[in-house]
Amino acid sequence: MTRHFLGDTAVLTRRSLRHILRSPDTVVTTTFMPIAFMLLFVYVFGGAIDSGTESYVDYLLPGILLVTIASGISYTAFRLFLDMKSGIFERFQSMPIARSAVLWAHVLTSLVANLVSVLVVVGAALLMGFRSSAGLVAWLGVAGILALFTLALTWIAVIPGLSATSADGAIAFSYPLIFLPFVSSAFVPTATMPGPVRAFAEHQPVTLIVDAVRDLLTRQPAGTGVWVALAWCVGILVVGYAFAMVTFRRTVT
Asked: pTM for the whole thing?
């Protein structure tokens, strides 16, 4: 049974990845906005922002990476919505394949597509002067946090992808997720914010995840911050997966 599920998921993932390769504008669109934000904040606002670091792009990049992921997962919801409306889920159900394989294929495709987008944004940051002395273990830690964050948001994206009544509705859920890093430590230190905003910013998960990634990239003592960030990612992933599977059973099976 497990081999059957894994084989079906692999075949359907290749199908989804081929769709991405046929429309590379998806990656371009996903990376355009984060890179534009990075250019704007570094070269326009950066001189007026005291981040407490020598290079503002070094401070900024972790938050931009989370914006990149939040922007990218909207396409997962969009592609799921298109599959729902085209009736492809019903056609797959009439075939001897694992029912949830098509769902997992979209999730894994999101992970691969967002990895490519993140690499493109990191490349742009390097051209803008980003430098990191982090070692291999630290970079693997960053990759692990970003991968878990991508999976967590992707499973949340599955819910509107399956239940939305329009393409705009499927995509619109990502707008608050893209905005959330702006009320965090992603762009400016939370100490510069007014009281109520600062309280929210310091205790929301994006700040904790951004700070953990930043500490790893700058070789700062991460302490328990990395574990707290991982716990948030895993917690969001578990909740998102549970609600996504409930939605899947109600709308498809």
From this structure: 0.88
